[in-house]
Amino acid sequence: MTTITMTSQRSERPPWLRNVFQRGWRMGILLLLLVASLGMAPLADAQADTDREMATAAPGISAEQWRQVRSGETGPNYRDSRFDSNYNLINASGETWRQIRNRWVSPFGLIAIGGMIVVIALFYFIVGRKHLDEPRTGRKLFRWSLLMRSLHWTVASLFIVLALTGLNLLFGKFVFRTLFGDAVWAWMISASKVLHNYLGPLFGVLLVVLLISLLKDNIPKKHDWVWFKKAGGLTGKHHPDAGFANGGEKAWYWLLATVGLVVVASGFVLDFPNYGQSRDTMQWANIIHAVGALGLTAVALGHIYIGTIGTEGSLEAMTTGYVDETWAKEHHNLWYEEVKDQAMSEEEIAALKSNSSGDASASKPS
């Protein structure tokens, strides 16, 4: 009864008034994101200014000390604490790494992530949410098992935590230290480091398990190229053909299977420095790790948008395990043709769940 009342009240609004409200709050979100992106400019400038960063990180280093380092002089004050090491504790290769990180990697990360946020906001404001073309039938198709949903959400949660802690390690000093002071900043950076170092290996292992589990459904097919040419249905009158996974989902899968595994591997090099890798190796691993992770974070924002508020019905698949027939037919028509005979009403699903005490099936129907 409540739903009927709300629907009737909404329908009493004139169409022009609904459009005003819709565009108004979208404009508010857009302006908020644009202001946030403008606020990133000083942060990028601070990162690119290596002298300013050095003054914050290690104010005691003098020009004479750098002269000694560059000339190759070593001594008790500059010797590495590692056993049998010929490195200087302060070394020229470390300065090269810092220049690359501050002048290139950090600005790249801000541009990639901030740019993606602005693009998503503009897309949502101009195009809006992708609604289903036809009404829902009320009949559902099973898509994801409880095990796969749990694995997906665990990997996704770890990815978000690692992204936030990584961004804090890279940029947080210029934001939170200024806002909250050294005491709070010290606690934040310490917690970020511990979480990042200990959750990273767990994420790597579970990511490999997830990639192996999804491999069969993400083998590229000829129709995936057509999907990209039609921009996933943004161009043309009809949705492009798609199997269980469409072209965009396959692209995200293979990005994780390539760049994602490189990020994991470089993270292991940094996390376990007791296998004989040199300082130079770890510096390059740090650069590779940061570039890959920042790029993945930017693309992940698009994936999160499309899978949540960007497309009607998509989130239901990973929360309930089921999708409506209409959603399957419009977004994954080739898969729909394979499984359409397995569609069930919500009553049938509820009865099946109660009989099986949980999920309707232990695996995806064939």
TrEMBL record:
<dbReference type="GO" id="GO:0005886">
    <property type="term" value="C:plasma membrane"/>
</dbReference>
<dbReference type="GO" id="GO:0015944">
    <property type="term" value="P:formate oxidation"/>
</dbReference>
<dbReference type="GO" id="GO:0022904">
    <property type="term" value="P:respiratory electron transport chain"/>
</dbReference>
<dbReference type="InterPro" id="IPR051817">
    <property type="entry name" value="FDH_cytochrome_b556_subunit"/>
</dbReference>
<dbReference type="GO" id="GO:0009061">
    <property type="term" value="P:anaerobic respiration"/>
</dbReference>
<dbReference type="GO" id="GO:0036397">
    <property type="term" value="F:formate dehydrogenase (quinone) activity"/>
</dbReference>
<dbReference type="GO" id="GO:0008863">
    <property type="term" value="F:formate dehydrogenase (NAD+) activity"/>
</dbReference>
<protein>
    <submittedName>
        <fullName>Formate dehydrogenase subunit gamma</fullName>
    </submittedName>
</protein>
<keyword id="KW-0479">Metal-binding</keyword>
<feature type="domain" description="Cytochrome b561 bacterial/Ni-hydrogenase">
    <location>
        <begin position="143"/>
        <end position="321"/>
    </location>
</feature>
<keyword id="KW-0349">Heme</keyword>
<keyword id="KW-0249">Electron transport</keyword>
<feature type="transmembrane region" description="Helical">
    <location>
        <begin position="195"/>
        <end position="215"/>
    </location>
</feature>
<keyword id="KW-0472">Membrane</keyword>
<feature type="transmembrane region" description="Helical">
    <location>
        <begin position="284"/>
        <end position="306"/>
    </location>
</feature>
<dbReference type="GO" id="GO:0046872">
    <property type="term" value="F:metal ion binding"/>
</dbReference>
<keyword id="KW-1003">Cell membrane</keyword>
<dbReference type="GO" id="GO:0009055">
    <property type="term" value="F:electron transfer activity"/>
</dbReference>
<comment type="similarity">
    <text>Belongs to the formate dehydrogenase gamma subunit family.</text>
</comment>
<keyword id="KW-0408">Iron</keyword>
<feature type="transmembrane region" description="Helical">
    <location>
        <begin position="251"/>
        <end position="272"/>
    </location>
</feature>
<dbReference type="GO" id="GO:0009326">
    <property type="term" value="C:formate dehydrogenase complex"/>
</dbReference>
<keyword id="KW-1133">Transmembrane helix</keyword>
<dbReference type="Pfam" id="PF01292">
    <property type="entry name" value="Ni_hydr_CYTB"/>
</dbReference>
<keyword id="KW-0812">Transmembrane</keyword>
<feature type="transmembrane region" description="Helical">
    <location>
        <begin position="146"/>
        <end position="164"/>
    </location>
</feature>
<feature type="transmembrane region" description="Helical">
    <location>
        <begin position="104"/>
        <end position="126"/>
    </location>
</feature>
<keyword id="KW-0813">Transport</keyword>
<dbReference type="InterPro" id="IPR006471">
    <property type="entry name" value="Formate_DH_gsu"/>
</dbReference>
<dbReference type="InterPro" id="IPR011577">
    <property type="entry name" value="Cyt_b561_bac/Ni-Hgenase"/>
</dbReference>
<dbReference type="InterPro" id="IPR016174">
    <property type="entry name" value="Di-haem_cyt_TM"/>
</dbReference>
